[in-house]
Amino acid sequence: MLHQLAFKVEKFTLSESGNPKDMNCSSANTVARSKRSLGIILPTYCEVDNIESLIREIKSVRSDALIMVIDDSSPDGTAKVVEKLAGEYNKILLLKRPSKLGLGTAITDGFRAVLSLKDPPEHIITMDADYSHDPKSIPNLIATAERGYDLVIGSRYSQGGKIVGWHILRQIISRAANLIASAMVGMRIHDCTSGFRVYSKEYIENVIGCLHSQTYEIQIETVKQAWMRGFALDEVPIKFENRKKGKSKLTRAEFQGFLSYIVKTNLPFRNQP
Ligand SMILES: Nc1nc2c(ncn2[C@@H]2O[C@H](COP(=O)(O)OP(=O)(O)OP(=O)(O)O)[C@@H](O)[C@H]2O)c(=O)[nH]1
Ligand SMILES: [Mg+2]
User: Fold this and answer.
1) What is the model's pTM?
2) Which among 44, 78, 99, 270 is placed 20 to 30 Å from 131, CA to CA?
């Protein structure tokens, strides 16, 4: 296996063996020869009110997409809903982790799980599972990735981007975090902290061993790695809508961790080539 997985991937309808390496996505290529194959990573913690309609809508937009849910044993039963949907749709995988281990490690475990597939998708999307990211934007993001970009960020702050439903303080904090993050990375990026992205398989293979973020700082770390290693990056405007159902998972401790990451890594970033 390419990368060791710490947790077991529950797999449905893809292979008989139970080994993630045996999961074969080749039918995706058959469905959409002209398009590159697509995997979508959905990190979840207590998203029972959102996950079903989100997965259904993603499948209506891209029925060939492999969906990999990374659930941290949500006490609200999110995983049960995913298991039910996996009986209905092809190519839904569930990686269950024992407890809430943070968004950053959820995404990196998702990357490892996707890379460990026999035929990993060529494009990998990450998106929040709280419906803040609209599945209808997926084709637009993918169209940019198809033009040769290794990281395409769904951007709230590019011209044409929009945020709906955030109070003014949240907007100010997010804007400030983005200005600092952009300075850290060393290039003008409008939205470094958006979680709605497309990555190329090549990018993920290249950086996976260098990602160490536990929580929300993963978004900046991945941008930094793209910039440092010369991967092509672009932004596509998106409409972001505050969650209507469920609660935010961004705890005070995680926000403090995010701030200390910014402070600790600021100067070294600026000195990178
Ligand atoms: N597996 C896993 N998923 C998480 C964890 N923390 C957050 N998530 C998921 O990551 C996504 C983003 O989390 P949110 O709580 O929406 O955080 P946010 O978007 O910064 O905050 P809000 O704007 O208030 O929604 C959601 O799909 C969460 O369910 C975690 O520790 N583990
Ligand atoms: Mg959210």
Assistant:
1) 0.86
2) 99
